[in-house]
Amino acid sequence: MLKTLSNKSILLFSMTMTLIMFTVVIFIVNPLIDKQGGISVLQLQLAFDKQVAINIVNSWGTYGIENFNELIFTDYIYAFSYSLFFASLFSYLLIKSEKHNHKAYKWLIVLAFTAGLLDWIENSLELFFINNQQTFSDTLFFTHSIIASLKWLAFPIVIIYIVTLLLQKDNAIRFNES
Predict the structure, then answer these.
(1) Other Cβ atoms closer than 10 A to 41
(2) Do 45 and 148 touch, CB atoms closer than 8 A?
(3) Which residue among 12, 44, 107, 176 sits deepest, i.e. has the most Cβ atoms within 10 Å of its Cβ?
(4) d(CA 51, CA 145)
(5) Spatial separation of the C-alpha atoms in residues 93 and 158, rounded to whole Å
(6) Which phi and psi angles does 115 have, rounded to 5°?
(7) How many angstroms separate the Cα of 67 from the Cα of each of 63, 81, 107?
(8) Terminal CA-to-CA distance of the chain, rounded, Å?
């Protein structure tokens, strides 16, 4: 799996898709939902309290809720693309730095995919919540925010290790040579 993920074609494809989907989700979709630059879409993820979340969603109005329902698929694509990109980049760097046999590093590939899976679960819970606000469980909404928090915690861990591999003198030279 490591060798497949480290393939330059997969790395370039996933990087391109991640950049495209990041732009689409952050600069187009989220602002279309909340008419506030998208910030309340992100605030919903970490609201933890169902009533706070209901207030956030109500601030979007009918138009925002309709946009959310129609455009949520973009966030699923984004989650897949960034998890594949991080796993691919990390695999590439592990092989280039000849650390691919170290089991301590391989868990980070799983963590990259786990972040994407957590994002999918979060998206699914948000979709169900937005369309069933009154009957949605307070506990389930709180759990949704924990899942979102875990997703957000996974990013810095993966990025720190990627940067660490990039900054290693020997790896930086090999990365530039290939």
Answers:
(1) 24
(2) yes
(3) 44
(4) 13
(5) 12
(6) -60, -45
(7) 6, 22, 37
(8) 20
**pTM score of the predicted model:** 0.90
Q: How far apart are CA 143 and CA 151, in angstroms?
A: 12
Type of residue numbered 175? F
The residue length of the chain stands at 178
pLDDT in tens, 102-128: 666 778 899 999 999 999 999 999 999
Query: Do 113 and 87 contact (CB within 8 A), yes or no?
Result: yes
User: Which structure tokens are listed for 14?
Assistant: 């996933």
Token digits of residue 168? 């290693």
Mean pLDDT confidence for 15-25: 98
Helix (H, G, I), strand (E, B) or coil at 42: helix
Reading the block at residue 128, the tokens are 């169900």
Helix, strand and coil in the chain, % to nearest 5: 85, 0, 15
Q: What is the distance of C-alpha 97 from the center of its chain?
A: 26
158: exposed, middle or buried (Cβ count in 10 Å: 0-12, 13-18, 19+):
buried
Residue 144's identity, in one-letter code, is H
* CB distance 175 to 166 below 8 Å: yes
DSSP letter assigned to residue 49: S
